[in-house]
Structures are given as C-alpha cells and as structure tokens.
Amino acid sequence: MKLVFQKSQRRSLFSLLWIAGALLLGLWSFVNVYQKAINLYCTPSEALTLPANQRVRVGGLLQEGSLHYDEDIVYFTLTDKQGGLLPVRFTGTPPRLLKVNQDTVVTGTYQPPYFEATEVLAKHDEYYRPKTSSSPELRP
Prior knowledge:
This protein folds into two domains: 7-36; 40-122, CATH 2.40.50.140. By secondary structure, it is an alpha+beta fold. The protein has a five-stranded mixed beta barrel with strand order 2-4-5-7-6. The protein is elongated. It has helices spanning 7-34, 44-47; strands at residues 40-42, 55-62, 68-70, 73-79, 85-91, 103-111, 114-122. The protein has two helices and seven strands.
C-alpha cells in the first residue's frame, strides 16, 4: 500500500516536522548552555558518594578543631547529622565569618582526598550590628 499525500497535507507535515526539529534543537541548546550553571545541593555524606569532578554545592557544620591555615590555603572539615565528614581545601581568602560549629556552604568538586572548594559561604546570625562612629575603622 502506497501512502499518497495531497500537496496541502505534505506542506502541513513538513511544517510540523520543521517546528518539532526546531524545538528539539532549542531544548538541546538550552540544556548544554545551562548545564554548567546548575549546582546540585547535597550533604557531606552524599558528596562522598558522588563521582569525582562533579560540581556540587555542599552544606554542613564546620567541625571543631578542623580549621587550619597554610599560607593562602584553608583546610577544614564539614560534617552533617548523619556522621559524614568531608575534608575541604580552599585556596583564597575565606570569609571573616568562617568559624567552628558554624553553618557553611561550599561549592566545588570532590577530588579525593579533598573537596576542592571554589567558593565558601559562611552563615551569619540574624542580628545586624552596624559599626558605630566610635569604632576605629570609621574615624577620620
């Protein structure tokens, strides 16, 4: 049996196939462009099970006694309530609020034995305390 389409049906079918192809191409482009911008969020326990070099964002508490400075490299360990310990290495200047038992979020990749952080965020408390004019930093 041979399928025979009239001219108007062929045009409609061609238009439909062209639109579907354009939509698939657009979706493929969108996924490829924004794939690097997507960061998965996980706990230190989950980060240890991820494949190496996968970019993720990890949140946990900075373990007591684990914060060490070595010139421009900062070493510390993140922990969670499941008992996972994630050793982190960060090159650069850490935030001033980076303290022991403080909520911390790091972005980077797990490259055993360390999680190589490219960004470190430290949580602060909910109170805003502006510097007063009597503080030495604001005096002329």
